[in-house]
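Quick one, tokens below:
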């Protein structure tokens, strides 16, 4: 359906609590639509203060959303499916990224219990959407496990895209500047990217790294570290071999991917998993866990390990460091795998689903 101005108007409803991955998904999906689409990001600012923030999010945002709808709508994350209280389901797709809100294995504090109930309540509105797009087949399976009331035919796996800038060769000057800025020297880098959340298994990677012998080896972790993981670093006496970095630009991350000997992603769960694809696009061999969506996303372009098996992980890293033929094979397969992911393809699939929803 074309609007009066000749373009399809799509409103993309973002979260009030900003996270890197959800904000990135919304931004890149909008950029992926063709010129025949006029897509806009809808955001609702909330006031400070716990109670007022909840009122704004759960009462103010749905009212605001009703006046911002387009010919079609995208609710960018399942946690905001309650916007379907005021958005017409027949023209609205909701995106589901993962079920981490329900599979969380940490302490069930009062704060978490409130979050769990709120999240469960939001998921109930998914049945009103015309389609639910999951970012992987694995996430679809998990969604159906927790929400068996949803019709399977309404849940459509559509992979995320990957931005083109990850595929560019980083100038040698920038790579050297990154080495100097972060005091990496000429040491060989084992790379991990991601905040130290419960499912990222950062401590497991550190334990595997500690088994590797070599004064020229360092583990570079980009993201936060919990006190528990810092305690593991002290316990294993590897503090001088672990470098923590935060708040890096995409250019600096790309340089790190191209500097690194290997990228390791040993998560216990992932809804999609961008970092391995970024590494592949940059020509860095990857080791991933067998958990979650990672086999689906990485295909045959990675070595896969049991995330709970520290020895298996350490052996895989050793092999990539010392077997040139294996490295070359992983790099070549990685380039091919990363090339399969495009935001234009993702956005076009949304358009096809919108047309099917008429």
């Amino acid at each position: 359906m074309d609007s009066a101005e000749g373009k399809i108007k799509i409103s993309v409803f973002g979260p009030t609590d900003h996270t890197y991955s959800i904000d990135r998904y919304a931004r890149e999906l909008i950029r992926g639509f063709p010129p025949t689409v006029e897509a806009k990001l809808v955001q609702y600012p909330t006031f400070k203060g716990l109670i007022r923030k909840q009122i704004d999010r759960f009462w103010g945002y749905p009212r605001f959303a009703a006046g911002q709808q387009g010919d079609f709508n995208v609710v960018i994350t399942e946690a905001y499916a309650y916007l379907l209280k005021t958005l017409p389901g027949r023209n609205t797709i909701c995106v589901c990224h993962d079920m981490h809100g329900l599979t969380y294995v940490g302490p069930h504090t009062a704060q978490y219990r409130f979050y769990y109930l709120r999240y469960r309540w939001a998921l109930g509105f998914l049945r009103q959407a015309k389609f639910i797009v999951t970012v992987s087949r694995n996430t679809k399976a998990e969604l159906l496990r927790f929400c068996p009331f949803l019709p399977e035919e309404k849940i459509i796996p559509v992979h995320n895209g990957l931005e083109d800038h990850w595929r560019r060769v980083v100038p040698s000057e920038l790579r050297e500047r990154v080495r100097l800025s972060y005091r990496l020297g000429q040491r060989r880098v084992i790379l991990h990217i991601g905040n130290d959340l419960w499912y990222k298994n950062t401590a497991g990677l550190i334990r595997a790294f500690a088994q590797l012998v070599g004064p020229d080896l360092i583990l570079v972790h980009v993201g936060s570290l919990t006190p528990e993981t810092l305690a593991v670093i002290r316990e294993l006496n590897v503090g001088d071999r672990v470098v923590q970095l935060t708040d890096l630009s995409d250019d600096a991350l790309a340089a790190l991917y191209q500097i690194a000997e290997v990228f390791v992603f040993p998560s216990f769960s992932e809804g999609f998993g961008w970092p391995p694809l970024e590494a592949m696009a940059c020509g860095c061999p990857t080791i991933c866990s067998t958990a979650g969506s990672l086999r689906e996303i990485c295909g045959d372009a990675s070595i896969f390990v049991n995330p709970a098996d520290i020895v298996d992980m350490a052996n895989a890293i050793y092999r990539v460091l010392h077997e040139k033929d294996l490295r070359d094979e992983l790099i070549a397969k990685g380039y091919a795998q990363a090339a399969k992911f495009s935001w234009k393809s993702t956005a076009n699939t949304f358009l096809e689903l919108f047309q099917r929803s008429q």
